[in-house]
UniProtKB/TrEMBL annotation:
It comes from Polyporus arcularius HHB13444. Residues 359-386 have a biased composition (Acidic residues). Residues 348-413, 460-492 are annotated as: Disordered. This is F-box domain-containing protein. It comes from the Eukaryota.
Length: 638
């Protein structure tokens, strides 16, 4: 009997089985056999076939997005009209492209495309991979692990280690690495382990596609001698900048994946990346760490137009037309050396080595000390602080009455995450953690790609409530005033913990003496700081399209029972910025202090309330000229 005589339902079932079996290319090949088959595949009056094909491989996008309580508060599902066929085809193309680029035998047998073609293909592939992360299925609340004590009591110091793990527990239970899935109790009806049964299809697919990493040129770009396009990407055109940001966002999510070794059996070919291909995995990590430090500790990022955080610069109308200044290759060292030249005019030479860290080391008496264990002279610290921006502008205005008054920092509605900086933060802090943690397997809970899923951080379902639906005719959006409205704590509204704030967190902060950047051997101070956060109030969100996610006002403190020295009180906000990223702003000072000392600005990695947490930077809260700068990574453990 001819294949064409089979009922269309049977043919569709065969095509769906081909996709489920890992042969999506067979669908396109079948469609090319004749017009009737082409029409069956591509000219169907509805999307039922492609929806079933899509769901054999990927999570249902209609159930994606959000975090704790998200589904209950959502009024609509924008994915109801999901473009099943084109999205599946884009992802299939991306998988084939990434695998071909990381198959070195394939690369040797094909002709090299132009750089422009490579850039456009990379963008297409990276955008597809990012969409897979964005639509990963949230972790179901039925298996969320919480270490919070009943009644919200404070744990005793003797049981603190048992109550609060160092790293997120859920992704480790799921089994983020293919060889780390453990069976917990009886397997399900399909014979799969507990971890396999609750894994997201999107994450499993992503891991398979990136089994050999990213295209070698991309990996080499993150482990080269210097950043292509300048330290801040200032020499890239619009398309190249898009490629850099997309690749950086993936690196922030997955970490650096070194080019696999060994490749000794492959015949070398002349190519710019070839020396990096034959570099050992450890060497690639070392070079990537060195390059990432150049970006992470670059004082250029402490700028008002970046809101002193990991955001793309928002230039004023006057600056946007200014000529771009050429920056030399030593653009990292020159600003730092210049800062120390300024500092030398205000202090004695023997004081030049004071380090400024987010959490000062403390002696047994609770007095602040420097990294060598010597008491810090408070009067010298005050002199070292330098002048504030306002003082600088006041002095400038006195000299020139027409000098511009410093503008307000950009509003949340103007901010976009700078993934190039955040990727560098990921590389630096992860490298430091690998050195600090003796057993790298302990990092599984933090580095697992399942930690990118919404709601994968531990949370207690009883702690969340969704906002009441507005009455008919009532306007639930914030009031509109003149100019750019900035919601404040006084503009309180109803809300719920949509970001999974409440609980116990760990935050890793890193810093170094800027003089060390001049020396060939660098070392960083690394500290993991436990903190407890809770919600104080909510205020309206002013970002169009995200009005249903109120700004969360947070308070908290570091946990004295889990760390030596004086505890610090904390406060800040969790909100949405213009590109839809979740922004975390936290201020801290010692208990009893009246002025904020330090501030960290971070961006949530992956979905809302993800176990992978927040990447960002910390600096002085008053934004003074000599403020330090360092990377930080925070994640929730209970």
């Amino acid at each position: 009997m001819s294949f064409l005589l089979l009922p269309s339902e049977v043919i569709e079932h065969i095509l769906i089985s081909a996709a489920a079996g890992g042969f999506p290319e067979a669908i396109a090949a079948f469609a090319q056999t004749c017009k009737a088959n082409y029409s069956l595949v591509y000219d169907s009056p509805d999307q039922h076939l492609w929806r079933e094909i899509y769901l054999t491989t990927f999570d249902d996008p209609r159930a994606s997005g959000g975090g704790p309580g998200w589904g209950e508060c959502s009024q609509e599902h924008p994915q109801d009209d999901w473009d099943w066929d084109s999205d599946f085809q884009e992802r299939t193309w991306a998988a084939r492209y990434i695998r071909h680029q990381t198959d070195h035998t394939y690369r040797l047998s094909t002709e090299r495309p132009t750089d422009e073609e490579v850039t456009h293909r990379n963008i297409r592939a990276f955008d597809a991979l990012l969409s897979v992360i964005d639509t990963a299925l949230p972790c179901p609340p039925t298996i969320v692990l919480s270490f919070l004590q009943s009644g919200g009591g404070t744990p005793s110091p003797t049981s603190a280690a048992e109550q609060y793990p160092t790293f997120p527990p859920l992704p480790q239970a799921i089994g983020g690495f293919s060889n780390s899935i453990v069976t917990v109790g009886p397997s399900d009806a399909g014979g799969r382990s507990f971890g396999q049964a609750i894994r997201a299809r999107n994450i499993a697919w992503l891991e398979s596609v990136l089994a050999n990493g990213y295209p070698p040129e991309v990996t080499a770009g993150f482990s080269g001698e210097k950043w292509a396009g300048g330290l801040t990407g200032q020499f890239l055109n619009e398309v190249e900048f898009h490629e850099m940001q997309a690749a950086s966002q993936l690196i922030a999510c997955t970490g650096l994946i070194p080019i696999p070794q060994p490749l000794a059996d492959i015949v070398p070919v002349p190519a710019p990346y070839i020396q990096d291909v034959y570099m050992s995995v450890e060497k690639q990590r070392q070079r990537a760490r060195r390059l990432a430090r150049m970006r992470v500790y670059n004082m250029r990022y402490l700028a008002r137009e970046r809101h002193w955080g990991p955001f793309l610069p928002v230039e004023s109308a006057k600056k946007s037309h200014a000529r771009r200044v050429t920056v030399e290759d030593d653009e990292l060292l020159q600003p730092i050396i210049a800062l120390f030249d300024i500092a030398r005019a205000h202090r004695h030479p023997h004081d030049a080595g004071h380090n400024h860290d987010e959490e000062h080391d403390e002696n047994e008496n609770g007095d602040a000390t420097d990294n060598d264990g010597m008491d810090v002279d408070e009067e010298t610290d005050e002199e070292d602080a330098g002048s504030t921006d306002s003082e600088d502008h006041a002095e400038l205005a006195a000299q020139d009455p027409e000098a511009d008054v410093p503008p307000e920092p950009p509003a949340s509605s103007e901010l976009h995450a700078d993934w190039a900086y955040l990727a560098a933060v990921r590389v630096v802090v992860e490298a430091n953690l690998r050195e600090q943690v003796h057993n790298v397997r302990d990092l599984r809970g933090l580095l697992s790609l399942d930690g990118l899923r919404p709601g994968s951080a531990p949370w207690d379902a009883s702690a969340y409530k969704t906002p009441a639906a507005p009455e008919d005719g009532a306007d639930s959006s914030p009031s509109k005033g003149k100019g750019k409205e900035r919601a404040t704590e006084s503009d309180e509204c109803d809300g719920w913990d949509w970001a999974g704030v409440t609980g116990i967190w760990q935050r890793c902060v890193c810093w170094m003496d800027y003089r060390d950047l001049i020396h060939p051997s660098l070392s960083e101070a690394v500290r993991i700081i436990p903190m407890r956060l809770r919600i104080k109030s909510y205020s309206p969100c002013t970002i169009p399209g995200y009005e249903h996610l109120p700004t969360i006002h947070v308070v908290g403190e570091t946990l004295r029972e889990l760390m030596p020295g004086r505890p610090r009180k904390m406060h800040g906000t969790v909100s949405i910025i213009a590109d839809g990223s979740v922004r975390w702003t936290l201020y801290s000072t010692i208990q009893g202090g009246d002025t904020d000392e330090w501030v960290s600005e971070g961006i949530q990695v992956g979905g809302v309330a993800s176990a992978m947490g927040i990447l960002g930077m910390w600096t002085g809260a008053q934004h003074e000229r000599m403020d330090p700068l360092g990377p930080c990574w925070a994640w929730k453990v209970a």
